[in-house]
C-alpha cells in the first residue's frame, strides 16, 4: 500500500475502471480536487462493474470504491480487508471524494438511500454507531461540506464570499470541534458523525 506524501493530504488513488472515457473523467475530477493518482498500489482502488466478480479483489488491503451495481454493497464486505464504498455509476463529485476518504479511513460508505434499504431488511440488524455530540454552526457545516469537495482555502473563500483569513478561522474551528488536525481527518470524522453526507 502506498503511503501519504504529507500529513493531511488525500489518499493516493488507482483508477481501474473498464471504460477509457469514464476513467479519464474520474481522473480529471480527482486531479482537480487535489487527489494524487497512481498507476498501481494506491491507498484506494477505484473500480466499476467490469470487475464483477473478480477474485483479484479478495484480500485487497487498501480501500476500494466500486461504481455501478448495487451488488457491490453485498460483495465488498466479503472481499475487501480494508474500507470500501459502493456508489452509483455516476456519483456527484462530493459523493466520490467522501467515498475515497471513507474507504481510505477503513469505513464502509453507501449512498443514504441504499443504506436505508439495507438496514430495513428483516435479516439484518441496523448498524448502531456511538456518535458523540458535536455542534457545528451552519457556517462550519458549510465549510466542512466544501472541505469534503476538496476545495483549497482560496476556493473556499471565493465560494463563501469571505476573506481567506476568515476561512482559516472557520477551518480551525471545525478542526477543534471535531478534535482533528487535518482536512482529511475532518472529512473522515464528519462522515463518521453524519455531518457530511455521501
UniProtKB/TrEMBL annotation:
Domain HTH luxR-type, chain residue ranges per copy: 129-194
Gene Ontology biological process terms in this record: regulation of DNA-templated transcription
Pfam families linked to this entry: GerE (PF00196)
An example molecular function term from Gene Ontology annotations: DNA binding
PROSITE patterns named in the record: HTH_LUXR_2
Alphabetical UniProt keywords: DNA-binding, Plasmid, Transcription, Transcription regulation
InterPro entries: Sig_transdc_resp-reg_C-effctor, Tscrpt_reg_LuxR_C, WH-like_DNA-bd_sf
PANTHER family (UniProt xref): DNA-BINDING TRANSCRIPTIONAL ACTIVATOR DEVR_DOSR, HTH LUXR-TYPE DOMAIN-CONTAINING PROTEIN
Protein name as it appears in the record: Response regulator transcription factor
Lineage per the UniProt record: Bacteria, Thermotogati, Deinococcota, Deinococci, Deinococcales
